[in-house]
Amino acid sequence: MGDPARVLCVCTANVCRSAALELLLRAGLRARLGPAADESIVITSAGTWATPERPVEPGTAAALRRAGVEPAEVTAAVSTRLTREAVAAADLIIGSTAEHVRAAWRLQLASRHRAFTLGELVRLSEAIPLDELPAADPATRLR
User: Do 42 and 7 meet the contact criterion of CB atoms below 8 Å apart?
Assistant: First the structure.
């Protein structure tokens, strides 16, 4: 298997929306792909105004546990500030809002072709017939 694909989830503080998206995406991929998911697709999150090392907000943490995310993963999740390096390394950037997508663009204009709001990404992915995706490993399909 080649290099994993990298997904970056972005919001403001990285203690609710983007942290939840990161953990839910990871859990969903593990459910679909099994243990190989972590080797195929690396999912991280960051905040445009994040204070580093803050835990996930209690209400969000409780909702994530109810949704089936492992409690240890919820506890281990801490906020990270969005950086140019994180944007440059990502194959796909999912912003909570258009403001978050624009923040990624400001850090690396080239990211504009791979940065979307969650709503945009859902609409775009629904428009792609599954039989038109490449018959390849998950990282290649994501790219």
Answer: yes
C-beta separation of 26 from 67 below 8 A: no
* Tokens standing for residue 101: 């997508």
Question: Which 3 state secondary structure label does DSSP give 81?
Answer: strand
Kindly state the tokens that stand for 55. 């835990």
* Burial call 92-102: b when 16+ CB within 10 Å, e when fewer: bbbbbeeebbe
Residues 82 and 10 sit within 8 Å (Cβ to Cβ): yes
- The reply to whether the predicted model has a pTM over 0.85 is yes
- DSSP lists the bridge partners of residue 13 as none
- Give tens-digit pLDDT for 62-94: 999 999 999 999 999 999 999 999 999 999 999
For the chain, count helices (H), then strands (E): 8, 4
